[in-house]
Amino acid sequence: MSEDQLKPLNWTAAPGIGYTASRRPDGGLYLRFTSLDHATLQHWREFALQHLLDSDRLTRNLYDLRPLETVTDEAVSYAVEVNTDPSVRNIRLAVVVSSEQVGQAVHRIAALSGASGVEMAVFHELEAAEAWLDRPLTILV
Questions:
Q1: How far apart are CA 26 and CA 32, in angstroms?
Q2: Fewer Cβ within 10 Å of end Cβ, the chain: N or C?
Q3: Which residues touch 37 (CB under 8 Å, ≥6 apart)?
């Protein structure tokens, strides 16, 4: 997908926010978190819910949580809320972690989200996550 074919991101950085968002070449999102403080979680929640409303096709998103050592209960709660929103549909979500605790938290989020329309997997290497995301999306349909 070329740059002019990508949907606008509609994401704006804010002072003190511990994550960044950008478009992936396939049109999905790449989000990298360095903090899960309350302000970051609120900013991300608003962005994620708004992004879901505009979602119109199968999507591949990559969450890079490698800088994090822990995931708070508040972060788990926000992630489950977003994953179970009625507008979630046909999303493939790869989450890259470096700590076992963060990986366990992501598995907990997946379990609490149930059959929400999100196909999610946890990886320890970015390359493995990218390869998984590159699988044909028709598997989701």
A1: 17
A2: C
A3: 18
pLDDT tens for residues 61-86?
999 999 999 999 999 999 999 888 77
Q: Where are the extended beta strands (E) located within 19-137?
A: 19-23, 29-33, 59-64, 91-96, 118-123
Two structure tokens written together for 20: 């960044």
Question: What is the C-alpha separation between 1 and 15, in angstroms, rounded?
Answer: 31
Pairwise CA distance, residues 50 & 41, whole Å: 14
Domains of the chain: 3-140 (3.30.750.24)
Q: Which pLDDT does position 6 carry in this prediction?
A: 57
Q: What percent of the chain has pLDDT over 70?
A: 82
